[in-house]
Every structure is written in structure tokens, then in C-alpha cells.
Amino acid sequence: MSKDSDKIVFSGMRPTGSPHLGHLAGALRNWLKLQEEYTCYFCIVTWHAFSSEYQNSKSIQQFTFEYAVDWLSIGLDPNKCVMLVQSDIKEHAELFLLLSMTIPLPWLQRVPTFKEMQKTIKGKDLNTFGFLGYPVLQTADIILYKASLVPVGEDQAYHLELAREITRRFNRFYGEIFPEPQMLLTEVPKLAGTDGRKMSNSLGNIIYLKDSAEVIRKKITPMVTDVRRKKRTDPGVPEDCPVFTLHKAFVPREKRDELAKGCLTAGIGCLDCKNVLIEALIELLSPFWDKRREYIKHPDTVRDILQEGNKKAREVAAKTMEEVRRAIGI
After folding, report:
1. Residues 6+ apart with CB under 8 A from 1
2. How, if at all, do strands 38-44 and 4-13 pair?
3. CA triplet 260, 264, 268: central angle to 5 degrees?
4. Which terminus of the chain is less hemmed in, N or C, by CB atoms within 10 Å?
5. Strand-strand pairing, 182-185 and 82-85
6. CA distances from residue 254 to 172, 221, 247, 260 in whole angstroms, order as listed
7. Where is 34: in which H helix or E strand?
8. Where are the domains of the chain?
9. 43-87 pLDDT, tens per residue?
10. What percent of the chain has pLDDT over 90?
């Protein structure tokens, strides 16, 4: 398949914990398709992680390595995409600084996720300039490579619209340097974690990609299901079952429809339903686990891939910043 060389895709993940099923369903499966179609930059956004993990910053390096290992193990190909580490490309910080000089403060104060994450993430002081400026750094990440497409779910649409607004403002002042990034809307399944809430590293309710078959079984078996099913003979509603969000993401539709019918009629028990999910996940992740073990045995290979990706990214970033400096006059 020939790529659309005029279309550049940028996307990233924060290394605040090991990659999990939410990353696979919400982004990685889509990235595998995108790397076949476009010029793609996939970034481990370490400075974004630092904005919330500054009191535990030494963990970021280990998680950065784990993200690289898991990305490669799931099928990202360094010959088809550029894998990079944000903090290794200093131009990200320079462009962030320049953008921040031009952005009205109310633009950032109105971002809904700023207050939401302050409430959701407990035990951390997120009332910092860096966390408030998160969307500006995010914009710098995207436009540094002149990305025209950014894969996002509907819950991230506001951030991308703000990035477009920031880009337009910069271009008005200094000329049409950057294309306005367009939203590549992707379906992001809302996966329930082991406690029934949205799966998130910050909530500690994760099923990790690296979890063994035994660990996956232990995590899923006790998960809460539809509260209507207090007894085996009670019918349930699949749409109200946290476990069924995982079925939607990882169980084939035909089997999923069969399970839904069984739930509605009490024809199948919750444990039987969970076992189908567990086996589907084990089958899906077994090839990943095999590849992961090999990459873990050869950490230098992983680091070399990141260094090569950083080199490619740095060349593009340096050219962009030369253009930006000329336009600004600094």
C-alpha cells in the first residue's frame, strides 16, 4: 500500500504507568493502520508525564522503556513510523515556550479537563503552571512536525480545537507557518477497569498488556457485573455491565451478540461470560507476550530504535524551528 505522503499524523502517550488494554483499544490498534497509510510520528510524551508525576519523576524513565517495548511488541514498525521520546527533542520545549508567550490565559483556564483531572487524581498537587499549560505543549508537539491529522476520540476533541485556535493565532502574528491540525476522529471504547470505573493508570484499576494469563484471570473474575444479576437466574442488561465494555472491545461480534442474548435471558452466568472474555484476551495477547519477552531480553535494540526515531524527528524539528525563529525575528 502506498502512503499518502502529504498527510502527517502525530499522536502520543504519557508514560505514567505501563500500557494497558485501554491504550490498545483506544489508540494502538488504530496506530497500526495509520502507519500503513501516512507518515506517522508516535511520541512518548515524557514532559506531559512530568506535569503530573514531578514528585515521582524517576519512574518516567522506566515507563518510557516499557512503552517502547509494548509499542514494538504490539506491531508498530520503526520502518513504517517514527517512534520518539518528547524530552529528547529539545525543540518541543522551545516551541512550547514561544507559543506560551502568545496565548491568552483565559484560553487555558476554561479547559474542562484541567479542573476535572484536579478532582479525579487524588494525592497530587496539579495546580501548577506546567499542568495548566498542558494544551500549549500538546499543540507544540503536533505542529512541530506540521502534522495535519491527529487521531483523537470525542473526549479529546476540545483539546484539538484549542490546538487549532492556538495555531491560527500564531499564524496571524507571524505568517502561515503551520497547518491547522485536523481531527481524525476515532472510536475510543470506554473500557471499565477492575473497579467498574473508567480504566486509568491514575485510578489503579488497570489490566496491563504485560499481565500474564493468570493475572488477567485474577483481575477479571471478581469484577462487578450488572447489579440486577444478584442470582444466576436473574436476567441482566449487558449495556449496564462494566465487564461487557471489555467484550465490546475484544470479543468478536457474533460471540458477543450470543453472550448479550444469554445475559438478557439469564441463559448464561456472569462467570461463564467472564471466562469467554478471559480466553479472548489470552488468545489476542499471546503473540504480544512472545515478542515482548524477546525485546525485554534485548534492551539495547529497543534503545537503538528510539535513538534512530529521535534522530529522524530531530531533523524535522530543527528545520521547523529555524523557520519559526526567522518568522518571529529572534
Report:
1. 36, 37
2. parallel
3. 70
4. N
5. unpaired
6. 52, 22, 11, 10
7. helix 29-37
8. 4-191+299-328, 211-293
9. 999 999 999 889 889 999 999 999 999 999 999 999 999 999 999
10. 71
Select from 3.40.50.720, 3.30.1490.20, 3.40.50.620, 3.30.70.260 the CATH code of 4-191+299-328.
3.40.50.620
Q: How many whole angstroms separate alpha carbon 209 and alpha carbon 190?
A: 17
Q: What's the grid cell of residue 33?
A: 493502520
Residue (of 111, 117, 93, 101) closest to 160 by Cα position: 111
Are residues 139 and 159 in contact, defined by beta-carbon separation less than 8 angstroms? no
Strand bridging mode 82-85 / 38-44: parallel
- List, in sequence order, the alpha helices (H) in 265-298: 270-297
Confidence at residue 185, expressed as pLDDT on a 0 to 100 scale: 82
Question: Using CA atoms in the order 51, 52, 58, 62, what is the torsion angle rounded to 10 degrees?
Answer: -100
Annotate 109-165 with DSSP letters as a single string: HT-HHHHHHHHHSTT----SHHHHTHHHHHHHHHHHTT-SEEEE-GGGHHHHHHHHH
Distance CA 234, CA 240 (A): 14
CATH code of the domain occupying 211-293: 1.10.240.10
Q: Give the pLDDT confidence score for residue 122 in this predicted structure.
A: 64
pLDDT tens per residue across span 226-245? 888 888 877 778 888 999 99
